Amino acid sequence: MDAGENPLERLAIVKNRVARAQARFGPPPQKVTLVAVSKTFPAPEIRPLLAGGHRVFGENRVQEALGKWPDLKQDYDGIELHLIGPLQTNKAREAVKLFDVIETVDREKLARTLAREMKNTGRQLECFVQVNIGNETQKAGIEAENALEFVKTCRDKYALNVTGLMCIPPLEEAPGPYFARLNTIARQAGVKKLSMGMSADFEVAIEMGATHIRVGSLLFGQRSKPAA
Ligand SMILES: *Cc1c(COP(=O)(O)O)cnc(C)c1O
Questions:
Q1: 139 lines ligand 1 (CB under 6 A)
Q2: Is-above-0.70 flag for pTM?
Q3: Could you give the CA distance from residue 162 to residue 98 in angstroms, rounded to a whole number?
């Protein structure tokens, strides 16, 4: 298949695949938001997508995002920036000021800190709870069996606006059953948004009900350094 000459062409190709996946698993097809994951890529490689009208992006490191997005947000209206990597509480203030959606809320200390910083800054961000859907010891996220209670804690105790769940399934296994499980937990928790699926598996994720897919390398090319 044609891999696309530039980020905008590749975006069109990915959007086409999204539409076909939606048609296959509809009707009615759920809305799928494509989060363009721009981690490790500098602003000049991101600007073509902004110029082409794309507005939803994901970054996994606060420090790196601070180096490019304040300028980009000045130049383009309507950007929605998602934090998709682990957040340390000592970076929560900067994260709340810069990002629009935090996809990686996964422990009570972070929920408490985010709530405080949102109060301090007057910015009420949408939050997704990250679920460690494969119960992998090395992975971030709340354990699946504790996810329902944690969503409730985030809402009732800290008044966080939890609108979705996010997961990264185990690398070496078929992702479908994990995506399906996240969907089940989301329905039980009463949240509507599901961030799941990356370059390699976003079509399966759409089949399982993803509302947000996080696509990096298919748009920007292979990352030269590993970025967890
Ligand atoms: C890097 C990253 C992605 C994008 O991965 P690709 O395989 O390049 O599409 C998605 N989600 C998270 C959490 C990531 O860290």
A1: no
A2: yes
A3: 18
